[in-house]
Structures are given as structure tokens and as C-alpha cells.
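Consider this one:
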Amino acid sequence: MSLPPPPFVGPLAAERVYRVPYQQRAQEARAWAEAHRLRPAVADERRTALLLVDVQNTFCLPEFELFVAGRSGRGATEDCARIAEFVYRHLDRISQVIVTLDTHTAAQIFHPVFWLDAAGAHPAPHTVITRADVESGRWRVNPSLAAAVSPHARFDLAGWALSYVRRLEAGGKYPLVVWPYHSLVGGIGHALVSAVEEAVFFHAIARQAPTRVEIKGRNPLTESYSVLRAEIAEGEDGSTIEAPNAALLEHLFSFDDVIVAGEAKSHCVAWTVEDLLAEAAARDPGLARKLVLLDDCGSPVVVPGVVDFSDQAEAAFARFAGRGARRAKSTDFFDASP
């Protein structure tokens, strides 16, 4: 049987930004743990991780830069309300919460300032830059950024950019999309949605289980949809641009269950799960059964009149289930879990 949410939880909390009163919530969490006989997570016999992917203001609130609306128009906001409720109701069974934070600066390969057209103008948000665009000179890298974003003085930024779009195209995933400036480190868009932050903090105190925070996406030369590895991680000469997150991979596989939720279902969630399943297949196909995908706690990218990734998200989740991952709703996972 699930726990009730604490008395301070309001129905509209996921729709706004607010300051979490940490000291007050910490005191309430200790009292809640005592009242409901919650043990420290270290005593759990079956260890369950909750992996929350990019549950940040920039993706989850309508007034921010890359709101993941889904087809309903309210997707990520409603997802966050369900995520927070899921945490409160299952404080006793979630051993650790792991949050990923998409973390950027202005000068990154998918932001407008990185690129110039022949007239010196930057591309508009949601512009797709293809291999043909770079080869023809329709779009070129901004040479003024070279010193700031290059890993060393002899780095060929223009050559890297051409190689990058060629390999993206050859890889068959997504083309290079110029996104609006988003998840800028230190900005309010970078922060966790307040209602989720509050629930995660409450869990950390009640279960005496510190939240693990994983930063992704800081490398200016590559995209990082997955928290486990960058889209293009190596130069054509074999040099490492961004190392895989091996430590997180090992940590996740140490749990009996890994519940995955967050945004966007079609992008960062999907490619994180793809990488987890690929690693599971390489080690032991049975490891795939550890993964539980919360269908009602993530939404696809939908920009009306521009793109709609709903079908791709559903196809990806169906494919993941075919490879051994379990699909569930936030209201039924623990009732149905082994």
C-alpha cells in the first residue's frame, strides 16, 4: 500500500517556481519517517533507483524555453505533478533518487551563436543544419568562438563541425537541431522544477539517502541527449571529446530496479534508456528487466506546426519493451513489481 502525500503538498505546486523551505521540510521529513516507520534506505533488501531525467524548469514549465508540451499541451507540467506524487507515495521503496541536469552555456554546437550564414546572421531556433548545409557553406561555425570552445590551440573547429554533421547523418539518429538557448548553468531554467526538488529533498531526509546529481551536456562540441554518453564522443582521429559516464552506468546496474522518468520522452529519456539497454545486452540480457519505464511521467517533444515526436517516442518505448524493459504507470508499478 502506498503512503499518503505529506500535508504541505498542493495540487498546483508543479505549475510554479518557488523556494523550497529546506529546514522546515527536513524537520517534517524526519517526523514523517518516524510516523510511518521509514527505515534508512541502506537497510532496503530490494534496492530501487528512481532516475529522473532533466526534470528542469527549462523543459517542464510553459513559460520557459523548451517546454515539452506533448500533444496535450500540458505534458511536462502534468508529468512533474505525477513524479512528485510518485516520490511521496513510495518513499519507503525508493532507495535513491538520481537526477540528471542538462547543463549548458550559450556557446554550444546546438545554440544559435555557434553558427553563421553568409551574411553573418545566426540561425533561428529549431533550424535543422544538415551535412549539405555545412558542405555548401550555407551554415558555418562562428570563428569568434574558436578559442573559447576548442580543447586545444590547434583544434580545427570548422573541420570538427563538418565531421560532426556527417557522422550524425550517418548514425541515423537525429540531425543537428539549433535549439533555443536553454538550461544555461546558473539560470533559473537550469533548476529542478520546484515541486520535484521538494519531493526529492524530502525523500533524501526521510530515507537518509542523499540524492545523486548527474551533470550532462556541458561540452560545447557535442550534444548529450543521453546522460551516459555524448552523441559524438570522439574525433575522427580517435581522440576523446567526451568520455562515457561509466561511473553512473555501474551505479545504476547495482540496483534491483531502475525506474526511469523525465523529459523529453522522445529525446533524453529515450536515448538514456537506449544506452542502458545496449550495455545490458552486452553484459547480460537479463539486466534489461531491471529497467522500468514510467509511461505517464514523460512527454515527447511537440512544437505545433514544426515537429511532433510523439510517434517516435511510442515506437522507442515499444522497442525497449521488446528488449526486456518493463513499462508501467506511476500508479501501478509497485503493485505489479516482483
